[in-house]
Amino acid sequence: FLLKTLSDRYKFLKDYNTNPKNLSNSMLEQSDLNNKSMRFTLKGPLRKDLVNKIIEGNKNKVIYIDFWATWCPPCIPELQESNKLIEKYQGQDIKFVFVCLSDSILAKQKIKELNIGGKHYFCNSVESLFFQNKYGFKSIPHYVLINRNGTIVDFGSSLRPSNPRTVEKIDKLLK
């Protein structure tokens, strides 16, 4: 059982690292992944296509998205580290986007207090659940890195702005 689980996970990661376009298309709802897509049907004026709109509005740019919340202990220090990334890449073809999974006065005050640059979005509870399911994250902060072609090339909590490998990945995409 364990060997099969690890083998399946290894195959998934190997396939993704070889060709991220398939998973990226599935996450962005441009196609189903092996027809096993877990569709999440929502009604109402929810921003289900928020990430697609971010990509469309930033063609030919690298995009770094940070999903965070005020109640998340590591999120706030990582937001401060994001400011360092924003400074480092000022004037380059990269867009920093922050999606707060709680639309609250406290979240907006925290952004103002920390003077975090970039573009900010605040989600209601239904949108938060939607994004967590769509992008498959169980904890936050969660990051998504998108290349100039609009393909999600990396995602997860390991893309924290405090991680030196994140800078390496961004540098590689900007070249």
Gyration radius, in Å: 16 Å
Largest sheet composition = 5 strands, mixed
If you average the pLDDT, what whole number results? Answer: 83
What is the strand content?
15-25%
Order of helices and strands: HHHEHEHEHEEH
Number of strands: 5
Distance between the termini: 42 Å
Strand order of the largest sheet: 3-2-1-4-5
Shape: globular
Which regions are unreliable across 5 or more consecutive residues at pLDDT < 50? Answer: 31-45
Percent of residues in helices comes to: 40-55%
> Structural class of the secondary structure composition?
alpha/beta
Q: Specify the number of helices.
A: 7
3D structure, described in words:
The chain is an alpha/beta fold. 43% of the residues lie in helices and 16% in strands. It has 7 helices and 5 strands, in the order H-H-H-E-H-E-H-E-H-E-E-H. The protein has helices spanning 2-18, 21-27, 50-56, 75-88, 105-114, 125-134, 164-174; strands at 62-68, 94-100, 119-122, 142-146, 152-156. The chain has a 5-stranded mixed sheet, with helices on both faces. Helix 5 links the parallel strand 2 and strand 3. The radius of gyration is 16 Å and the shape is globular. 25% of the residues are buried. The model is unreliable at 31-45 (pLDDT under 50).
